[in-house]
């Protein structure tokens, strides 16, 4: 936090409090603590388990279930973007713009694909009563053999 940034009584940046309120979320202590961990490191991809580990390391007392719930609430509110790698693994991206991802399988790591490197065209017509919300491309990578 810069010296010019105002803080609340809990020393959390007011911008995070406002960000949560603007998204329709009550800025609880746990949400503010997790938001600070998530958004203070720039754009990144994080799993619930990794964020929970960061919270424990930062002496933030929060259960893994609360981390999962908070990440899903942030996603629903548009603060994060869920990147489902498969049915058992979801990462949360702090960059909510339209972009695609590489998944490095050996490292279980998600990396942004530069926007100019993928063009998606010839999308199918959505079924009646439906519309395409977005297209997610995940390019799975492995080391060359």
Automatic annotation (TrEMBL):
Gene3D superfamilies per record: Winged helix-like DNA-binding domain superfamily/Winged helix DNA-binding domain
InterPro entries xref list: FUR, WH-like_DNA-bd_sf, WH_DNA-bd_sf
Protein's cellular compartments: Cytoplasm
The entry's keywords: Cytoplasm, DNA-binding, Iron, Metal-binding, Repressor, Transcription, Transcription regulation, Zinc
Keyword Metal-binding recorded: yes
One Pfam family of this chain: FUR
Oligomer status and interactors: Homodimer.
Family to which this protein belongs: Belongs to the Fur family.
Family matches, as NCBIfam families: FeRespRegIrr, TransRegIrrA
Protein's recorded name: Ferric uptake regulation protein
Organism the protein comes from: Pseudahrensia aquimaris
Lineage, highest ranks first: Bacteria, Pseudomonadati, Pseudomonadota, Alphaproteobacteria, Hyphomicrobiales
Gene for this chain: irrA
């Amino acid at each position: 936090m810069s010296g010019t940034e105002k803080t609340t009584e809990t020393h959390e940046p007011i911008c995070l409090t406002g960000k949560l309120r603007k998204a329709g979320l009550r800025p609880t202590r746990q949400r503010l603590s997790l938001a600070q961990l998530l958004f203070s490191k720039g754009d990144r991809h994080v799993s619930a388990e990794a964020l929970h580990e960061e919270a424990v390391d930062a002496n933030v007392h929060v259960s893994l279930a609360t981390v999962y719930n908070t990440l899903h609430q942030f996603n629903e509110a548009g603060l994060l973007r869920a990147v489902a790698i498969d049915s058992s693994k979801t990462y949360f991206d702090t960059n909510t713009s339209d972009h695609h991802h590489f998944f490095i399988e050996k490292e279980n790591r998600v990396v942004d694909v530069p926007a100019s490197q993928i063009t998606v065209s010839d999308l199918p017509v959505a079924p009646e009563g439906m519309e395409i919300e977005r297209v997610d491309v995940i390019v799975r990578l492995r080391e060359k053999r």
